[in-house]
Hints:
This protein has 525 residues and is α+β, with helices and mostly antiparallel strands. Helices cover 54% and strands 8% of the residues. The strands form 5 sheets. Strands 1-2-7-4 form a 4-stranded mixed β-sheet. A 3-stranded antiparallel β-sheet has the order 3-13-10.
Amino acid sequence: MEAAAEALASSSQLQPHVAGAFFALAACTVALAALLAVARTRPPWWCDCAVCEAYLTASWAGEFDNLCDWYAHLLRASPSRTVHVHVLRNVLTADPVTVDHMLRARFDNYPKGAPFSAILADFLGRGIFNVDGEAWLFQRKLAAAELASPTIRAYAASVVASELRSRLVPLLHSASSDDADGKVLDLQDVFRRFAFDCICKISFGLDPGCLELSMPVTAFVDAFDAASMLSARRAIAPMQIVWRLKRLLNVGDERKLRDSVRLVDAFATEVIRQRHKLGASSGSDLLSRFMGSISDDRYLRDIVVSFMLAGRDTVASALTASFLLLSDHPEAAAAIRDEVSRVAGDDDDRPDFSKLKDMHYVHAALYESMRLFPPVQFDSKFAAGDDTLPDGTAVTKGTRVTYHAYAMGRMESVWGPDCAEFRPERWLRGGRFVPVSPYRYPVFQAGVRVCVGKDLALMEMKAVIVAVVRSFDVETVGRSSRRPKFAPGLTATFAGGLPVRVRRRAGAVSGHSPPPKSNTPTTEE
Length: 525
């Protein structure tokens, strides 16, 4: 009897495992059957043309280091500056006229669209970068009103000044050396930490202290980067059913994405909890102001994540590319120093932030850097209805249409025969910065979706460039702007970082000087 009881108990313990194994086998069988069905039916958009074959086999990688460089090559070779990757049902363009058509003339026909929102839904939720219609308009109006507020602008300026004075400049001083074999610093990592600290203070009123290099990168930062990378992989999958099945079964990349998003959610929830605890009316940060109009914590979570993506990743990407280019073009760094000396004075180690607007060469150098290395290399919309692009390309309902800012910066037809050259002077007329049409330079998007945080981001980036270039020589180690290698993600990130050696310039002011003055009162808590 005892033996029978033990056998029965053992059998009951095995039953859940056996059931689980059968379920997994059945799910895999269904998934395989679905894939075989897709393969047999060959969807009407399936294609074996040279472009689609190169994409599916990744044969383009034999000649190009990055997918964006291959796309740029295809677009340059196209008389219409438009190509169609049929297997992705994706039309790509580098034509300013078509960009104007998408973002202004037919804006109503080119929303983000449900397919795009589905790709990023787990990560960005209902944040401003992932919605259309009333939800987008509500967030945009609220963000635009707050970012235009003199109080928010003063608060942001004081945060950037504090981070420069007390963290970034002292850190670079400690890493500087006159030795050719001196310490190597990953400047991309430094800028990502700097931008993370700034956006957390400006947006949430919290100081993570991430720029202390002795501190390990938080689990949240790793999770955020992983979520960005894995979400981007969804977007380039030839068949969306693949990632959807993986998500259903919670396997592979989709399991990693779910784990990463769980950590991102935990961070955002804690940020919101702390702001609730302190009281929304107690802070000058953006989240406190949003909480006055939004009571749904899940919605606030999506807004927090969107702030992080916009305020950390894009700023760090643009700064990293700028210093890569300035290292390759020391004459441009010298021109920046000359302008800073002329505008701010040689002995003034506390430049007024209002003087940044008079530094036209600094502005031009930053714009030129983002022309060649836009933080967001491309942006996609999904056609709400059938359309014909200005170049005659027919677009059917549901087609993904992408304008490729990275490729546009490398088009002779858009920027002339010297389009591959870093030349800030192309933006200057009589020594003053002169912008071009945003449809020719859609780095900040254009039309009604133009970036609402543009001015704040430009202030932060120019302040960093002025502070660093004035006091240091930055030399890259084993990197060149001629042949960069990008890591996958929603924003442009250099694979392997940006290793540099930093040397303090003779006569440079102390990194522990008082903070830059703001022409508006400081409101940092």
